[in-house]
Fold:
Amino acid sequence: MYELLWLLLPVAAASGWLAATHGARGAAAPPGPPPLRSDYFRGLNYLLDEQPDKAIELFVKVLEVDSETVETHLALGNLFRRRGEVDRAIRIHQNLIARPALGQGERGEALLELGQDYMRAGLLDRAEGLFQELVRSARFGARALQHLVDIYQQEKDWDRAAHAARQLEGLSGRPHGGVIAHFYCEQAEERGRAGDLEGALDRVQRALDASSQCVRASMIEGALLEHGGDFRGAIRALKRVEQQDPAYVPEVIEPLGRCHEAIGRSREMEDYLGYLLERYGGVSPALAMADLRARREGGEAAVRFLTEQLRLRPSVRGLDRLIELSLAHADGAARENLLSLKDLTRKLLEGRSVYRCGHCGFHGRVLHWQCPSCKLWGTVKPIVGVEGE
Structure:
């Protein structure tokens, strides 16, 4: 509540000065309402006595809506919304909008704030109505559209979210193709779960039309084609990921391996893994290569290969796999030592975060295309380093 106190102290001082100025002009001034100074100080006393409800009622009552007090109303409401006291914020902003003397710009600002109050309270339909009213405003249109995009995302109304994002793109001049692509990817996944392969692939194409760099669309396309038995088509889609964003290459290695094996092209997969190791590194291609070597040349060849790779790029995951391969050829004290090391690497990997948001730092074990923390799209990627890739 001390935030509110500091917010209103300058208003109290200004009100006292205005009252004194009007008083100095002489007794000829017509009688009017009592000076605001005493009311403000009464309100501040309520705050200090921890009676915020009485303070709010008083401030709402005495704040006359003119060019000098609209900002105070807006600041009060914004403060309460940020503090989670949404009912109070709504009351203040509704009171502001109801005043007949409010200018057009001030009314737009108040509507925008009230819409955010409704969003915070979960009243999305009311918030949508207010933002729709502001969409055609040159001053508030872009902000209103951004809130509409947020609302449609919460409602999972992806078509309307994409439409609003396109309007926002045209109004703001900033590209939103990457975000729009994720909206179509959401639809593609929904249709894929419903067994509508054709509809899902159509939404994948729309996503790629919106953003040719959409990794998620390529991964969804690969999964859909693999499920439908088109392994060559799946390979083409999954290999596209390396050109779009190599950070996501670890996510496609396993399905690529399955598809190559399904058409009898394991050697081709091995060549591709060698290319990835040479160009990008990372432990996932090395582990996949070790598995292929183990099947074709035996466990000892896989151990030699992985040992060399770990010298180049140390990795807890790699060490864990190396121990696992070595256990097949160990006995006696050596086996006991390896089992102890295996237990250690297991504990190091247990519960470890695999993905991190590059914007807010959120950590998780599941790939979220929309960060659960900052709500941005496409910012969560595999962690790189000794404990990751």
Q: What stands out?
A: The longest strand covers residues 355-357.
